[in-house]
Design brief:
Elements: H1 10-25, E1 29-34, E2 37-43, H2 47-54, E3 58-65, E4 69-73, E5 92-96, E6 100-104, E7 115-120, H3 126-130, E8 135-141
Antiparallel strand pairs: 1-2, 1-8, 2-7, 3-4, 3-8, 4-6, 5-6, 5-7
Protein name: Cyclophilin-like domain-containing protein
InterPro entries: Cyclophilin-like (IPR041183), Cyclophilin-like_dom_sf (IPR029000)
Organism: Emticicia aquatica
Length: about 140
C-alpha cells in the first residue's frame, strides 16, 4: 500500500500553478457569461485579440445600440488593425477603435471599420440572453 500524501510542497504547488497559467494563456477559447447563459467563443490569432486576452477576466456593462449590438469601453486601449468587414455576423466580437468592444447579436452589412478579435462558436440563445437593454457580460479564458 502506498501512503496517501496529504501535504503539497511549495514546489508542487508552484508547478501546478505554472501548468494552469500555461494552459490558459495558450488557450484561444473564451467563455462569455451573460446572465445564466454561458457561450464559448474562439479568439482570432492577432495582436488585438492577444491584448484583449491579457485584460481577462473582465466584467463589462455593455450598452445596447441599433438593436444588433452591445458595446462597452475597455479599461485599457488595445492595438488595432481595422478594416471594413464584408459583413457582420451574429456572434462576432470586434473592436471599434482601440478601446470599444462590440458584441454583435444580429448580422448586417456595414461601412464602419472594425478589428475582429473573435466569434461565438454557437449563437443559439444569444439574442434572448442579451435582451433589449444594457447588460453585464463577463469574459474569461476557457480552461481546458
Amino acid at each position: 500500500m502506498v501512503p496517501f500524501k496529504t501535504k503539497v510542497s511549495s514546489n508542487e504547488k508552484q508547478l501546478s500553478e505554472q501548468i494552469i497559467q500555461k494552459n490558459t494563456k495558450n488557450s484561444n477559447k473564451l467563455k462569455i457569461k451573460i446572465g445564466e447563459k454561458t457561450f464559448s467563443a474562439t479568439l482570432s490569432d492577432n495582436p488585438t485579440a492577444a491584448a484583449f486576452k491579457a485584460l481577462l477576466p473582465l466584467s463589462l456593462n455593455m450598452n445596447e445600440l441599433n438593436n444588433n449590438e452591445k458595446f462597452a469601453q475597455l479599461p485599457k486601449s488595445v492595438p488595432i488593425n481595422a478594416s471594413v468587414p464584408a459583413n457582420i455576423q451574429a456572434g462576432d466580437l470586434m473592436m471599434y477603435g482601440s478601446n470599444t468592444l462590440v458584441l454583435f447579436y444580429k448580422g448586417f452589412s456595414t461601412s464602419y471599420s472594425y478589428t475582429k478579435i473573435g466569434k461565438i462558436d454557437d449563437v443559439t440563445g444569444l439574442v434572448n440572453a442579451l435582451g433589449t437593454g444594457d447588460i453585464k457580460v463577463h469574459f474569461e479564458i476557457e480552461k481546458d
